[in-house]
Amino acid sequence: MASRGAVKQGRETIYHRLFKIGIWLKGIDGILEIIGGILFLIVSPIALNRYVRFITQRDLHNWFGEGLRHWAANLHHGSKLIGGAYLLGNGVIKIFLAAGILRGKLWCYPVAIVIISLFICLQIVRLSIRFSVPMLTGTVIDIAIVLLIMREYRRVKSTP
């Protein structure tokens, strides 16, 4: 039978691995957001609308495809600029914080907690205006990542 200490150590190892996975996912998400933001800014609304219609043409009755086509058809230049800037800024922040945490920069932990929590608040507001399962899923994952960062920060600070 395993001792309490061994069980606690095993649990800590699992939490640490989940923390690392979460930080890597945030970094990868940041890279994808930067790529998306750049594409969003350089592709015209008309070309974007044509591309969305092309990639969703087989999914005529798919709710995601219909929603994507509706979004692309109603995209205006101003909202395209705001969306592109948002994706770029969000991506840069995520990569910066993920890299800092993975490099062991202690100041990045509380900064990441605050910034991700602000994004969570924004996502909750957006969910209250228009519910979306992907947005809810992302919000729950972000909450889990914040909790893992908090746990890891306490662990790292208490280690001599």
Estimate the mean pLDDT confidence: 85
Count of helical segments?
6
CA-based gyration radius: 19 Å
* SS-based class: mainly alpha
Sheet-strand content, in percent, reads under 5%
What's the quaternary structure here? single chain
- Helix fraction? over 70%
Query: Spans of 5+ residues with little confidence (pLDDT < 50)?
Result: none
How would you describe the shape?
elongated
N- to C-terminal distance? 30 Å
Number of strands: 0
N-to-C SSE string, H for helix and E for strand: HHHHHH
Number of domains: 1
Question: What is shown here, in short?
Answer:
The chain has 160 residues and is mainly α.
Layout of strands and helices, then pairs:
Layout: H1 4-42, H2 45-56, H3 63-73, H4 77-102, H5 108-129, H6 133-158
Helix pairs in contact: 1-4, 1-6, 2-3, 4-5, 5-6
How would you characterize the overall build of this protein?
This protein is mainly alpha-helical and about 160 residues long. Helix content is about 85%, strand content about 0%. It is built from 6 helices and no strands. The protein has helices at about 5-40, 45-55, 65-75, 75-100, 110-130, 135-160. Helix 1 (about 5-40) runs antiparallel to helix 4 (about 75-100), helix 1 (about 5-40) crosses helix 6 (about 135-160) and helix 2 runs antiparallel to helix 3. The longest helix has about 40 residues, at about 5-40. The chain is elongated and about 60 Å long. The mean pLDDT is about 85.
